[in-house]
């Protein structure tokens, strides 16, 4: 009798699990939409397209990168939440959107409740970039110039990580610079080159081509340690003690997405990021690869929420 009951329970469990298993096995059965809150040419755009190309090799299914810049990424989050949570819509959650969600007024979503983790891809420094024609060749020279000349700095938008990077710099150096927000870092970079603004902050993947091309001068990286790709560029903390800021890239999906699919995607992304060849491609862009699991990204998001909340409070940038 006990054997019969055990068999019945086993059969019922298998029947109940079958639909989820079939869904995971069939996935993905149509193109996937990866929504990003940054403009084409930005760090998130570059990383998203690399990930999309790599996963296409595994699934033979297209991943369409949908760029929706504006409001420091908040527009992309609103759009992602209106999508069917069937696993075919993902969002690139970055430090920019994470900061914006705590800074901007009128935010209607809750990142902690409305989005489920997939994987933490990696972290990256921001780079303080200046137009070579302003004359500052070091952080000390920039600080001295800012104390006697009104300077303007651009960012990817009010409340973006680049904005907060600038706020921290002015607070810790006792300088006063005018913040000029843009709809994306690519526009901020373009206007720095055109001298519409004097400097900007950009993640290393977006900044590097302009540094190497001589169009912009890198004065410092925002992470406590120097970036291996540009070892001659000092950490801002070397001239401004206590300064630290960094960007990060992760994948999430709207809450309600089946766990079986989330797990499948997470395993594939972690596998790809930790492959030597693909990992080297990310490292060549200045990414410090992580390849974090869903649980690891959950912990990261929780820790970052606490850190950024304190930072926003100290900086006084709540809108």
Please tell me about this protein's structure.
The chain is α/β, with parallel strands linked by helices and 319 residues long. The protein folds into two domains: 32-123 and 247-315, 3-Layer(aba) Sandwich (D-Maltodextrin-Binding Protein, domain 2), CATH 3.40.190.150; 125-238, 3-Layer(aba) Sandwich (D-Maltodextrin-Binding Protein, domain 2). It is 46% helix and 21% strand. The protein has twelve helices and ten strands. The protein has helices at 2-26, 43-59, 74-81, 95-103, 111-114, 139-146, 161-173, 185-193, 204-212, 259-273, 276-283, 294-315; strands spanning 32-36, 63-67, 89-94, 115-130, 151-155, 177-181, 199-203, 217-221, 246-254, 288-292. Strands 1, 2, 3, 4, 5, 6, 7, 8, 9 and 10 form a ten-stranded mixed sheet that branches. Helix 2 (43-59) crosses helix 10 (259-273) and helix 4 (95-103) crosses helix 12. The protein is globular. It starts with a helix and ends with a helix. The model is unreliable at 6-23 (pLDDT under 50).
């Amino acid at each position: 009798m006990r054997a019969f009951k055990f068999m019945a329970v086993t059969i019922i469990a298998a029947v109940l699990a079958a639909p989820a298993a079939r869904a995971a096995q069939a996935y993905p059965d149509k193109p996937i939409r990866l929504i990003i809150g940054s403009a084409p040419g930005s760090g998130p755009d570059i990383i998203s397209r690399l990930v999309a190309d790599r996963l296409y090799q595994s699934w033979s299914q297209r991943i369409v990168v949908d760029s929706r810049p504006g409001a420091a990424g908040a527009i992309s989050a609103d759009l992602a939440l209106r999508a069917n949570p069937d696993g075919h819509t993902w969002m690139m959650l970055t430090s920019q959107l994470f900061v914006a969600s705590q800074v901007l007024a009128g935010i209607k979503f809750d990142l902690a409740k409305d989005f489920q983790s997939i994987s933490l891809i990696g972290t990256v420094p921001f780079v303080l970039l200046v137009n070579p024609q302003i004359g500052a060749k070091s952080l000390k020279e920039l600080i001295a110039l800012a104390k006697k000349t009104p300077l303007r700095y651009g960012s990817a938008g009010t409340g973006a990580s680049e904005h907060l990077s600038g706020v921290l710099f002015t607070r810790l150096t006792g300088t006063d610079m005018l913040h000029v927000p843009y709809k994306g870092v690519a526009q901020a970079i373009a206007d720095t080159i055109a001298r519409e603004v004097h400097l900007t902050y950009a993640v290393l993947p977006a900044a590097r081509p302009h540094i190497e091309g001589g169009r912009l001068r890198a004065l410092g990286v925002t992470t406590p340690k120097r970036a291996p790709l540009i070892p001659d560029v000092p950490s801002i903390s070397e001239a401004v003690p206590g300064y630290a800021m960094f960007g990060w890239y992760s994948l999430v999906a709207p809450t309600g997405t089946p766990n079986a699919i989330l797990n499948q995607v997470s395993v594939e992304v972690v596998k790809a990021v930790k492959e030597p060849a693909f990992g080297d491609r990310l490292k060549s862009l200045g990414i410090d690869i992580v390849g974090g699991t869903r649980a690891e990204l959950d912990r990261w998001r929780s820790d970052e929420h606490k850190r950024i909340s304190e930072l926003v409070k100290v900086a006084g940038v709540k809108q």
